[in-house]
Amino acid sequence: MVKAIRFCYLISIPIFLAVLSYYYALMPETVSVYFDANGLATYTVAKGNFFYACIGIFALTNGLIMLYRRLTKHAVDMSLIDFSEMNKTESNYHWFGGLSLMFNVCYILSIVFIGLYHSKEKFDITDYAALVYLGPIFIILWIFWFIYLQFTKK
């Protein structure tokens, strides 16, 4: 499972960059990011600021998790690939790798939703509302996996 999580994480990086680049090219010069109860935009940002904010958040979260993993790598037996064979420190180390993946998936889905919302094509955006909920659901499920690991490890 550890290798599958690592592979998916490594694949999520170029997918994030490709999705961000694709939707950046399609976005209007101002991107609405906050709406009132009537659905009217109350806060907009420039297209370039949106792009750099996405890159910054992506780099910050992945960088912090990578920093944690680099600092704790010395205490982990990297030959173990099954969570059932790991102690608490090793499972936490690999869990944080999966957390990076979950954040990246959340970012990808959010960018797709925002890109579809601002698309020149007339999509019924309510058909894509699930994209907004999938990312946080994945993160919450990953947190429950962390809790499970904490109670089952010695």
From TrEMBL:
The chain crosses the membrane at residues 7-25, 50-68, 93-116, 128-149. Keywords: Membrane, Transmembrane, Transmembrane helix. It comes from the Bacteria. This is DUF1648 domain-containing protein. It comes from Reichenbachiella agarivorans.
